[in-house]
Amino acid sequence: MDWDQYYEKFYDWATSTQISRMSSLTSYGASSEVAEVAQEYMDEKAASRLIKKAVAYGVQFTPEEIYDLSGCCNTEAMNVLLDSSKCRFTKEQLEDLYGAVDDEVLERVAARNKISLFEDDEDEEIDDETVEEEFFDEPVASDPKIGFFTKFFAGIGIADALSSSHASHPGHCTGDCANCPPHYGYRYGRWYYGHGHVHGCEFGGNKGDGSL
């Protein structure tokens, strides 16, 4: 049975008949028709067998057809299909076939088309590594050092604060209400603990300035 007869009756047959009649083919038609039939089988084994027979017969497929066939043929058939191809591939077309054919076959066809595969990805990885190295090699700024005089005057300030807070009160009014420690007194009609008493100061003073 020649290809024209097979293709004309193809859609009238059941799937099992479509596949069984393949063995009686004595010729093959246009690559687009062969690719169409292979995908219509919905059977990887049958599709792969048809494509290998078509390639052996001399059928040449386009890059687009080869990509479509990668979804229905096994790796062995794709290797035969790609290795025997005479069409011109772009870098993107070959990279799209990664995983559908063996690596050595893909590299061989890429070399034949003078294409370096995945070159951009390698450059991006190198750029990422360079950025990481620059990031981690960046010197970390050290904390500013405190000078001798800064420490000296800071020590004096702390000492003064400690001495003033711990200075003992004589127990009687000194007239210095601003620096008088909290004590009991009478103000606004009640006794309370604080500063600035109007009268009743436990230290004997009554020069309150009216502030708490």
What are the main properties of this structure?
212 residues; mainly alpha; 2 domains; two-stranded antiparallel ribbon; 5% strand; rod-shaped
Q: Helical element count?
A: 10
Largest pleated sheet? 2 strands, antiparallel
Assembly state (oligomeric): single chain
Order of helices and strands: HHHHHHHHHHEE
Question: pLDDT average, as an integer?
Answer: 80
Kindly state the number of beta strands.
2
User: If strands are numbered along the chain, what order do they take across the biggest sheet?
Assistant: 1-2
Structural class: mainly alpha
| Cα Rg | 48 Å
What fraction, in percent, of the residue positions are helical?
Answer: 40-55%
Query: Low-confidence spans: pLDDT under 50, at least 5 residues?
Result: 208-212
Sheet-strand content, in percent, reads: under 5%
Whole-number total of structural domains: 2
From the spread of the alpha carbons, the general shape counts as: rod-shaped
What distance lies between the first and last C-alpha atoms, to the nearest angstrom?
116 Å
